[in-house]
């Protein structure tokens, strides 16, 4: 067995791997900077406060989703249901404010509680009943969509509550409210991931579930909580979306899971779990946002935008594979 | 017995400076069944890997049917007629018997890519009849028993015009009647003049069907004998005959009160009615063959698998262990057999791995204190020297011995009363081994109770105060240090005549 390999030789080889991982981390930020620089040169409007705030506002919903998705993917899971969870939270929250326009807090709480609960159901299916997360959340995707449609009878709920609209449309100074919420969510979740036992266990479970269990970690419980948290965040994102468009649409949020997964993957988090970072995800979210915005400013047709986004995702994963092979 | 068909001479192979094979020779004659014997790590598998083209030797010559040959790859060996029946069979379950036998070389209608199913079936039927194999050519392989699958592999090898067949532990998954069928097949091959290299740990089989025996130990050839000349004692001493060296620094430790007592622990079909106790400062060695149920007992004890029945008493108190977290809370620690699969999170840092099982000690509420964590790690690394660049490097980047030290450090950080070590030195180099033995000795002196499950007999004899021998899911015997030899352990473990 190659276990007799001299330590030194192995370390030299491996350290090259580590530095290539660093390269890819900074490489990602470099890609973002290059995109920003190119766009500032080719477009007069890109580098204005208004436009940058616009970019941030546009990415904030995907950003909140991607933060939750990062936790999921770190445990080697996936959640395809978040678009439907957004709709459930949106219709519940908007129905509450349509009865009592001032009950914004209750609307948020009830909507997020519902989506968190449904997330917990997916998590339980996968952690306790051994259903693959892909399948469990695929099932939840259609179940939750059905719940949103039944709840509203398929009709959108119009919002007239100004305090509710403030969540998605308001500004504090020059900064849009969704951006503030996105930042607060990111900071809280970064603390959870990097400063708590829970966060440590998330990485451990994704890296080696058996070793985590033998080390005394309640793997099932942690996984379920990860899906609950992801459900909460999906609900929050769904409510922000409904506030932004002033209506609770049972069909809203479709396809949002794909953008969130894309941001996480571009950000370098391994789909096999155990490796990745929130910083990477945030950069991934920004790269998608900046490029979307830039292509809009440059009048590139939205059809072409789809292709370009796909190429970026593929490129990021290829880069990831190469980094892994070198490591 | 016929003339020599294969001669391997002076076979030498080193992995990273460690010689796995050192000038070993092997000769095989037409129509003989030739046993290749040796403990794990003796060099059997390396020798067979060379013969089947999986590994290139550093030195040595292979003469097959009078020609000097070199195998660039497994296909080259197969083309010359050297086939290996592996321990783990991998036919494709969704395909039929015929499709599996002729996979990749199906008879076709001339000039077309279409398989001539009729011809395929006819050819297969002929082969099956030759071996009185009761299955239809179009039976799905998934429906066959393990023995039948094995037979299928043998038939497949014959259909390749094999001139030499290697069987690696062919009976490990077979029932007694299936073994009989296999032996009949082997007899038939013998009569056809096809020689067989037979690797097995089961003594009775060796004496039942082999003609000659080659014994390897520590990568060297110990001897070649006619089977009729040897008895099992003679064979065992050829296989193990080495003295315990000075690498076992077991020092006497004061043995105190009982730490763990296990009564009637049962988990069918793995083990039944297992009872034993370990005391403070004592190293309890558990020996036995692979599959004797040793690891399974430890897993159940630690709450990884659920036991059917039995009682576990820790420090005088009956405890219920339903999850490893219960075991840890009661003061147990478990260095598992397989570091990569069960012991480590390879993608995370040394620091995160070391504190994984004791993170609460470094935490206030849900929050981990990095300074408390660093202090814990520093204290541990001042006792256990891990060769590393920095604490933040991924565990993946460490050598086997250093990885094992990280696992041990992880468990010592839980401040256990009982440390379970399952094959603690498997796959690590001699230097790291000696360090781990020293560590065990020191920990015992500090009053820790230690259970060491090991298949390496010198290690069991060298380190244990007391030795339990397990076989087929039950405890077969208990011995004090110095009261027993390797041969006696093997005899006890074999019971029914089988050997590790």
Automatic annotation (TrEMBL), chain A:
CDD domains assigned: TM_PBP1_transp_AraH_like (cd06579)
Subcellular location: Cell membrane
InterPro entries: ABC_transp_permease
Transmembrane parts of this sequence: 26-52, 64-97, 103-124, 131-151, 171-194, 224-242, 279-297
Pfam (any one): BPD_transp_2
Coiled-coil regions listed: none
Broad class of the protein's primary localization: membrane
Keywords linked to the UniProt accession: Cell inner membrane, Cell membrane, Membrane, Transmembrane, Transmembrane helix, Transport
Membrane disposition: Multi-pass membrane protein
Protein's UniProt name: ABC transporter permease
Species assigned in the record: Paenibacillus mendelii
From TrEMBL, chain B:
Residues annotated as transmembrane: none
Gene3D superfamilies for the chain: P-loop containing nucleotide triphosphate hydrolases
PROSITE patterns in the record: ABC_TRANSPORTER_1 (PS00211), ABC_TRANSPORTER_2 (PS50893)
GO MF annotations in UniProt: ATP binding
Keywords: ATP-binding, Cell membrane, Membrane, Nucleotide-binding, Repeat, Sugar transport, Translocase, Transport
Domain ABC transporter: start-end pairs: 6-243, 253-497
Coiled-coil regions, chain positions: none
Protein name (Swiss-Prot/TrEMBL): Sugar ABC transporter ATP-binding protein
